[in-house]
Amino acid sequence: MARTDPSIERLLERILEAAPADDALLDAASGVDARQAEALRTLSDIARAFRDFDTAPRAPALFTWGPLAVQERIADGAASEVFRAFDPGLGLPVALKLLRAGDGAPPARMFLDEARCLARVRHRNVVRVFGAAVHDGRAGLWCEWIEGRSLAAWIVADGPLGAEETIVVGRALCRALGAVHAAGLLHGDVKPDNVLRERGGRIVLADLGAGGEPAHVNALLRSTATPAFLAPEVLAGALRTPAHDLYALGGLLQFLLDGRVPGPDRSDPPARHDVPAALRAVIARARDADPARRFADAAAMEQALADALPGHAQAPAAPRAGRRGLAIAASVAVLALVVAGSIALRPASGPPQAEVELLLQHDAAIAPAADGTQVALGDRLAFSVTSREPVWLYAFNADDAGVLTRLFPLPGLDTTNPLQAGRHEIPGRARGRNLRFEVSSSAAAEEFLLVAATAPLARLDAFDAADGRVDADVRTRSVGRAVPATTGPTDARLDALAAELAADRRVRTWRYRLPHRD
């Protein structure tokens, strides 16, 4: 029997352990074709439904609205209020959006009509609208409650995303917008605040109370949409169309990469050196000033994002619509067999799927650097680590005698092992601030050894970190605080450790020697 791709097995294990299937793993897993991915998402959704079903309300009701017990106010706007509520009929927590009465709110009939249209959209990346009604003189709609946070909150808390994470989010939102547009609707206000990241990684397009048929959305959003994500022709007075949702999505992707709100005065793709040219091109095309040069539809933009993934290979075509149910059922059956035999089929552990890049900051400029690059006192260094799976990373620096000190992991850092799938910078963060290593010695050269593994390495964890800490007194210009090294065993030598690790199939190593400028 052929071995199953390890990435599929990891996803199955996550589902069996009651963790949601991570969209990043689904999109990045090389061994998952379109039908398998759809089956895995279906299994994850079923598991999530059983976990959430018949959940009792946890807080006393503020008031009732029809059958719903309203528990907590979540957001308050000029036209509506959003609450967390409990639906006893569904046995689920729900989000309730209640329309305000007043000049700034849309007519109740329009609001209800659009809510009913949106309730017909069924897609895992679109928040599910359960219903709409009028109770106690107030129109409202209620939809699924997402345990997670908005993309805006995610970026504020954790910083900009790497290219692959951004592509994963972009593809999910292309699929979501494709479903909305196929129903003859548009969203009208695609922005980081209106997209949620569920615990486990599912990306969900939310705030559909702003969406609907194009004519109604234009009437509703004429003065309330977010200008930073609007196309130039819309700012000039043109009516919104589904294509303008894709323009806004391009701005959202730009925000994910650089953490800044886009606008007409800065429509160029982000200048980060680690953003692949293919991804820059997708963003530039989505936000082109000429509407004729933008993507024709969401499917075209999703394909362009898929092509921008590193190591992209054409995935098998999805099954034809007439056989979709059969294909999903067959995939689920095959996956069930894989679960039953997952232990027997598990291949021997191999090296992690990870890449490391050295970054050198001299004055204000940051650029990639190669082995042999010259450095000077005051230069600052970091290592960019990109992986498709969780990895344990260890970083060491050697002095002129080859004696090692550990640079990562280090007590006091917010960034710790294991590093989750995606892109990270080492040393990472402390107290929310980005850090760099600063060249502060007069040695002839700086030597580094980086080690990535699929599991903790006791030999490397044994390095004495008692004297290592984040030094709050040493500041580097505009990049946070410097990180001193830990102390290591006096018999630890770079060459000996590198040779020892070379024989371990679980690890990958990288070495850099950076001579000091005279």
UniProtKB/TrEMBL annotation:
Signal peptide start-end: none
Upper lineage: Bacteria, Pseudomonadati, Pseudomonadota, Gammaproteobacteria, Lysobacterales
GO molecular function, one term: ATP binding
Keyword Chloroplast part of the UniProt annotation: no
InterPro entries assigned to the protein according to its UniProt record, in alphabetical order: DUF4384, Kinase-like_dom_sf, Prot_kinase_dom
Domain (Protein kinase) ranges: 68-306
Keyword Nucleotide-binding: yes
PROSITE patterns: PROTEIN_KINASE_DOM (PS50011)
Protein name as annotated: Serine/threonine protein kinase
Keyword line: ATP-binding, Kinase, Nucleotide-binding, Serine/threonine-protein kinase, Transferase
